[in-house]
Design goal:
CATH class: Alpha Beta
CATH topology: Rossmann fold
CATH architecture: 3-Layer(aba) Sandwich
Strand content: 5-15%
Largest sheet: 6 strands, parallel
Shape: globular
Order of helices and strands: HEHEHEHEHEHEH
Number of domains: 1
Radius of gyration: 19 Å
Distance between the termini: 65 Å
Number of helices: 7
Helix content: 25-40%
CATH superfamily: P-loop containing nucleotide triphosphate hydrolases
Length: 211
């Protein structure tokens, strides 16, 4: 009887390049004052997927939570200022699909033990680029990673793309129209965006707050 050929198992690698190649990723370019509004429009266009939103700081997470609540979008915010019981309750609700939008920070993401994440929403890119890859590992092959990137964050975006040797596709949010900084209700006509990777000013220290 002829010898059967041995099956060769394909090893799965978890380096930045491999994870980046396997994970669906999308970038939305936006001005800082429009970010919450664009994210609101994105959520209203989505199919209520299990979405984890990562903010760079506790304050930013809280501000986004307040904004979404004011626009009739249910989301729960948890970070380092919350009790262990609050974190566990939010984690159970999300994993049971009783909660579909959870806002948190990088520091709390791993301890939450979240499963079945369909969308990893990078509301803000991390200060340390390696943290981006820690985020997308949660949706490796099973979901997608979306990033809302301001001109101040484009340098970080470019570094991330270099680290995984690929450009992340850019898309537009349906129904979103750029507004002027002092315009909060009625959107103005869309303006042309600056080149994606043009020269930018050095990031302000206040933008690097980490929690």
């Amino acid at each position: 009887m002829p010898e059967q050929p041995k099956k060769i198992s394909k090893k799965k690698y978890y380096d930045n390049i491999s994870v980046g190649a396997r994970t669906k990723q999308i970038v939305y370019l936006v001005q800082k004052h429009d970010k919450a509004y664009m994210f609101e429009q994105f959520l209203k266009n989505s199919d209520k997927k299990q979405t984890v939103v990562i903010a760079r700081s506790k304050r930013s997470a809280n501000e986004l939570g307040v904004y979404l609540e004011a626009h009739d979008i249910k989301a729960v915010v948890v970070h380092g200022n919350h009790r262990k019981a609050d974190l566990e309750e939010a984690s159970r609700a999300f994993n049971a699909s009783k909660l579909n939008i959870l806002i948190t920070t990088d520091m709390i993401l791993k301890p939450l033990g979240l499963t079945n994440i369909q969308v990893m929403a990078n509301y803000e890119l991390p200060t340390h680029e390696e943290d981006y890859f820690m985020r997308i590992r949660y949706v490796d092959e099973i979901g997608e990673s979306i990033s809302f990137v301001t001109p101040e964050e484009e340098k970080t975006l470019r570094t991330i793309e270099i680290m995984m040797r690929m450009d992340i596709p850019q898309e537009k949010v349906q129904g979103f129209v750029t507004t002027t900084p002092n315009q909060t209700e009625k959107p103005a006509k869309d303006k042309k965006k600056k080149p994606r990777h043009g020269k930018k000013k050095t990031q302000n220290k206040s933008e690097k707050e980490i929690d």
